[in-house]
Amino acid sequence: MELSELQEVRRKKAEALREAGVEPYPARARRTHTTAEARARFADVEPSLPEGTEDAEPIELAGRLVSRRHQGKTIFANLRDGEGELQLYLRRDALGDTTFEEFLKLYDLGDFVQARGTLFRTRMGEVSLRVSDVSILAKALNAPPEKWHGLQDVETRYRQRYADLIASGDVRRVFRIRSTIISAMRRFLDERGYLEVETPTLQPLYGGAAARPFTTHHNALDQTFYLRIADELYLKRLLVGGYERVYEITKDFRNEGIDRNHSPEFTMLEFYEAYADYLKMMEAVEQMIAAVTVAVYGEPRFVYQGQEIDVSPPWPRISLRQAIREASGVDYQQHPDREGLLAAARAAGADVDSDLVWPRIVDELLKQFVRPYLIQPTFLIDYPVALSPLAKRKPEDPTHVERFQPYVGGGEIGNAFTELNDPIDQLARFVEQQRDREAGDLEAMPIDLDYVNALMYGMPPTGGVGIGVDRVVMLLTDQPSIRDVILFPAMRALTAEAPRDAIETPV
User: Fold this and answer.
1) How far apart are CA 477 and CA 489, in angstroms?
2) ∠ Cα 307 311 312 (to 5°)
3) Domains and CATH numbers, the chain
4) What sign for the dihedral angle of Cα 166, 172, 175, 176?
């Protein structure tokens, strides 16, 4: 790799440290306190200290240099670790000429250092560490992003997330909240007796959703495998086997377009409960989202894209047919054939491709006329059979199934059913999906005969839910794009050879 001018300057500083007998990448670090623990310690001891004195017990901090200013025989620097920042106060007479000059001339912003000293409060009121010894832990060859503006180029932010995290406390906050959300989801289910399980990522046959898969080849088995598009069918096999409540938080993969709501790799929570139906699962979803929101904000309310949203249960429930009819004037029940529904959708102003099959036209009506306006939490319920091949029919209306989707902030965050457990009906639905595939619907599910065979052993009445974890994180962190809540989102490869300075962190 050819280094840039700036990188070469920093590399030479690393060599100068080595020549002075200092290893710029030592194998060991010493730290007695984080910056947060140091502040807490000083808050405890300061009331007992004579005014203007310092804590007598030395401590050691470690972290990244994020700012520095030089005033004669004094250097003020800020050290940041995973819990915050603390000011370092370095004096020439305390460190000695050699160490002081090394810190001044051979250390740079972005370097990792460790500092030993005692805590005190400056005349300006800043809790600081009076440094008696400082040493380098890792020499940074790239300059950190500019402090006040961070990374401005969106593409660079996604490609170099490490630099984005260095630059922005808000970005670090987003991913801390993401961790809180996933922990709260797991806690909610664990407390209700659900068993966390793991199912295959590589599958010999994909299913459980309407999506195109990523395909790979298993050399040892000489067989085509697929990255899972959902874990639904495997989780329901576990209910056949005797478990009554299971869940999985996992990565799914769909070979589809990328936009603000879709990523080819995303995180999904799915949970299934025996002897439950979609009504019970609606209650579980609204309770979970409320609990997760409280875990983040302390109350079941948050602001997303300028709108305050209250997720307190219960949420309104509207049938899909009613929602589409009221928003577009199209009653899909009155247009059972593809050509008729296509004409009605276009007459209502929908932008619909002429080659879409009937269920995809219904889905487009939902996306274009209904979804953007469901800001407050709402359940859309009761979907056409053709749109829901894994859900149980409504007893009073066999043209529809017991399915719901939760919508919040103008977007869908999940999908759920009273699960179909009749193996013969399930096989017929798979066959119908195959017809749709032959008619051009590349997202239609293949026939999974092993899953049908599992159902033939008997699966109890079951309610199941899938929640898009990334979309929940988008809502609770007020982020407009799914790529803002995925640490390392999929990006198009750079085709041209990168310029020499492309390996630097842009300022």
Assistant:
1) 17
2) 135
3) 5-138 (2.40.50.140), 167-316+376-484 (3.30.930.10)
4) positive
pLDDT per residue over 140-181, tens digit each? 999 988 765 556 778 888 999 999 999 889 999 999 999 999
**Using 50, 70 and 90 to split pLDDT, how confident is the model at 501?**
very low
- Identify the helix (H) or strand (E) that includes residue 341: helix 338-347
What tokens does 501 get? 């300075």
Q: Strand 223-227 vs strand 215-218: parallel, antiparallel, or unpaired?
A: antiparallel
- Exposed, middle or buried by CB within 10 Å (0-12, 13-18, 19+), for 291? middle
- Three-state SS string over 281-311 comes to HHHHHHHHHHHHHHHHHCCCEEEECCEEEEC
CB of 213 within 8 A of CB of 264?
no
Cis before residue 314, ω within 30 degrees of 0? yes
Name the β-bridge partners of 270: 248, 466
> From CA 14, how far away is CA 17, in angstroms rounded?
5
**Which residues, listed in sequence order, are joined to residue 130 by a DSSP beta bridge?**
89, 118
Q: Cα-flanking dihedrals φ and ψ of residue 55, to 5°?
A: -65, 130
